[in-house]
Amino acid sequence: KAGVTQTPRYLIKTRGQQVTLSCSPISGHRSVSWYQQTPGQGLQFLFEYFSETQRNKGNFPGRFSGRQFSNSRSEMNVSTLELGDSALYLCASSSNRGEILETQYFGPGTRLLVL
Amino acid sequence: GEDVEQSLFLSVREGDSSVINCTYTDSSSTYLYWYKQEPGAGLQLLTYIFSNMDMKQDQRLTVLLNKKDKHLSLRIADTQTGDSAIYFCAETYPRDYKLSFGAGTTVTVRA
User: How confident is the model at residue B1 (pLDDT cuts 50, 70, 90)?
Assistant: First the structure.
């Protein structure tokens, strides 16, 4: 099976712009999660979707949003970019069927640089 | 489940065993994971252990879980230069639908 894919791999934006990142999960996986990784804060959970429904959201401002499509692909959007949004954004998918989040498999990430 | 702690650095000689330690705080944790991250890459799942287990072995990797002390460890036998990376432990518990990660342990393998 193909792994989790993320596009684009690298992005450079300027402050105030917005950005959309895309994630395609492993075939058959219906849960998609997003994480932000920075040197200062480490790995922080953004949100998780299952069957197009957001089941959990991390402590990020409303500028961070996401969605999941019927084919399980997911996008996340960051509006009004700030310098502090520069990070590696990681997407993960799992075959989660119940209350317990089953093993998550991560994509290579999108590295966002905000100037 | 927000306070997963790890030591930050470990230096080990090639061929020796590495032991990476992690403590977690949520007693309802269900799965506990170890991920590896190499420079410029995403997270690679190494192994995981279910909270009702004490130990799991997978080739060179051994995971030990001490639920009483909420302590998780990863032992890498015969450490190789390719094992140089950052290792993250993570936990999840029912209906939380997320992983809570430690800060990561940077393992450096020296010849």
Answer: very low
Q: What is the pLDDT of residue B61?
A: 97
- Cβ <8 Å between B42 and A107: yes
- Candidates A18, A19, A29; CA nearest to A107 is A29
Q: How many CB pairs under 8 A join A and B?
A: 63
Q: What residue in B sits closest to A91 (Cα-Cα)?
A: B42
CA dist B103 to A29, A60, B64, B78, B107, Å? Answer: 27, 19, 19, 25, 13
**Residues of B near A (CB-CB distance < 8 A)?**
30-31, 33, 35, 41-45, 48, 88, 90, 92-104
* Per-residue pLDDT tens digits for B20-36: 999 987 777 778 999 99
